[in-house]
């Protein structure tokens, strides 16, 4: 497997502000890789360092094995798509797409040919002669993509490119982006704070917080096996409950909830007995007769969400518990005030380090 981008202990300081505290990441060639994290965690800074718009304070970035510190942005085999598409307003769509090729000195006939093929790829051939203002937001973003792909960069950096679009369009564009990456074989590095976007498109995701990488893995790894409390809370929805852990053996532990119930949990390496949090996803809690259930709670409200329902309950010790129920169960839902039992699916309770 070839490594496209190798980031080694990247530190970036802006005066007193440290935006990145020693980030190391290996991004494989031909992958859809996502940098995911809340606002201010350093995602854009990392992208700008790869593009060459900023200089590293410490560390090293290699592109296909070559240190790029001394390489000007226009000499890196990299292109960027921004949130604001920044198309040239007085140029036709096809001229916008061909622009990067012109800068590279590609002859006119080949330029038009390649730009035409790029427009075909983003399904906009019929719009080649329009001006950007005559296109919808989604179409403009597809032109920006075609323009960034036309010079055949080896790495495409995408900085929240879908955030200006409405929800339906964003969902459609996710599928299109993923398919564009697969068709071209170009390494995509995609920045977003939207976890659903990251989960649907990425081969691998780096979850970032406060200038550090918290976890790197496939969507399923970070959703099913979050490494710490931040990742469990940031990715999807979860119940985070305080527990006291006693014995730990062979990756499993018994933990006492505040109401005295004992539950069996998976335990990450290195965790010690004491006070911790356990994460249980709402879809892995199930209603059960109160007798013999893992948890006891009182129903507070049921929220109808279309394809499923969210049941909000409270444990005897005051913890809120969220349970996801399939829409098909809607005729059978206990009413607010009802006492219910909840069982935890095997392996669904995960102890977390802070
Ligand atoms: N030019 C700058 N000067 C000073 N501080 C900066 C500069 N650029 C970024 N920062 C700071 O570095 C940190 C990381 O910023 P960055 O833009 O990389 O975050 P982000 O995760 O991309 O956030 P967002 O999703 O809001 O764009 C923030 O605390 C930010 O205020």
Automatic annotation (TrEMBL):
EC number: 7.6.2.11
Ranges where the ABC transporter domain occurs: 5-235
Record's keyword annotation contains Translocase: yes
Catalytic activity: ATP + H2O + polyamine-[polyamine-binding protein]Side 1 = ADP + phosphate + polyamineSide 2 + [polyamine-binding protein]Side 1
SUPFAM superfamilies recorded: MOP-like (SSF50331), P-loop containing nucleoside triphosphate hydrolases (SSF52540)
First-tier enzyme category under EC: translocase
A GO BP entry: putrescine transport
UniProt keyword Kinase present: no
InterPro entries: AAA+_ATPase (IPR003593), ABC_SmlMolc_Importer (IPR050093), ABC_transporter-like_ATP-bd (IPR003439), ABC_transporter-like_CS (IPR017871), Mo/tungstate-bd_C_term_dom (IPR008995), P-loop_NTPase (IPR027417), PotA-like (IPR005893), Transp-assoc_OB_typ2 (IPR013611)
MF terms in GO: ABC-type polyamine transporter activity; ATP binding; ATP hydrolysis activity
Record SMART domains: AAA
One Pfam family in the UniProt entry: ABC_tran
Organism domain of life: Bacteria
UniProt KW keywords: ATP-binding, Cell membrane, Membrane, Nucleotide-binding, Translocase, Transport
GO CC annotations on file: ATP-binding cassette (ABC) transporter complex
Spans traversing the lipid bilayer: none
Function: Part of the ABC transporter complex PotABCD involved in spermidine/putrescine import. Responsible for energy coupling to the transport system.
Similarity remark: Belongs to the ABC transporter superfamily. Spermidine/putrescine importer (TC 3.A.1.11.1) family.
Subunit note: The complex is composed of two ATP-binding proteins (PotA), two transmembrane proteins (PotB and PotC) and a solute-binding protein (PotD).
PANTHER family named in the record: SPERMIDINE/PUTRESCINE IMPORT ATP-BINDING PROTEIN POTA (PTHR42781), SPERMIDINE_PUTRESCINE IMPORT ATP-BINDING PROTEIN POTA (PTHR42781:SF4)
Protein name: Spermidine/putrescine import ATP-binding protein PotA
Organism the protein comes from: Aliigemmobacter aestuarii
């Amino acid at each position: 497997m070839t490594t496209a981008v190798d980031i080694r202990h990247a530190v970036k300081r802006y005066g007193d502000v440290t935006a990145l505290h020693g980030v190391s990441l290996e991004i494989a060639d031909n992958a859809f890789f996502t940098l995911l994290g809340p606002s201010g965690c350093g995602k854009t800074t990392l992208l700008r360092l790869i593009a060459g718009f900023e200089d590293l304070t410490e560390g090293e970035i290699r592109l296909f094995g070559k240190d790029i510190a001394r390489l000007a942005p226009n000499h890196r085999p990299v292109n960027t798509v921004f949130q604001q598409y920044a198309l040239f307003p007085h140029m036709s769509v096809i001229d916008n797409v061909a622009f990067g090729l012109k800068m590279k000195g590609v002859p006119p006939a080949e330029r038009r040919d390649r730009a035409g093929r790029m427009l075909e790829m983003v399904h906009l051939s019929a719009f080649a002669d329009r001006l950007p203002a005559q296109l919808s937001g989604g179409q403009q973003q597809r032109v920006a993509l075609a323009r960034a792909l036309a010079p055949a960069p080896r790495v495409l950096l995408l900085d929240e490119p879908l955030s200006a679009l409405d929800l339906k369009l964003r969902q459609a564009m996710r599928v299109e982006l993923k398919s564009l990456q697969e068709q071209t074989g170009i390494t995509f590095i995609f920045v977003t704070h939207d976890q659903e976007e990251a989960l649907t498109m990425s081969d691998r995701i780096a979850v970032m917080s406060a200038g550090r990488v918290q976890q790197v893995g496939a969507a399923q790894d970070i959703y099913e096996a979050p490494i710490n409390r931040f990742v469990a809370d940031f990715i999807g929805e979860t119940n985070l409950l305080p527990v006291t852990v006693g014995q730990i053996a062979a990756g499993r532990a018994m933990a006492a909830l505040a109401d005295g119930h004992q539950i069996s949990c998976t335990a990450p390496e290195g965790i010690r007995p004491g006070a911790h949090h356990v994460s249980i996803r709402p879809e892995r809690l199930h209603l059960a007769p109160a007798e013999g259930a893992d948890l006891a709670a009182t129903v507070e409200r049921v929220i109808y969400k279309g394809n499923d329902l969210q049941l909000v309950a409270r444990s005897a010790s005051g913890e809120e518990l969220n349970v996801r129920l399939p829409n098909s169960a809607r005729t059978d839902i206990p009413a607010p005030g009802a006492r219910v039992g909840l069982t935890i699916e095997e392996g669904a309770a995960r102890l977390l380090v802070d």
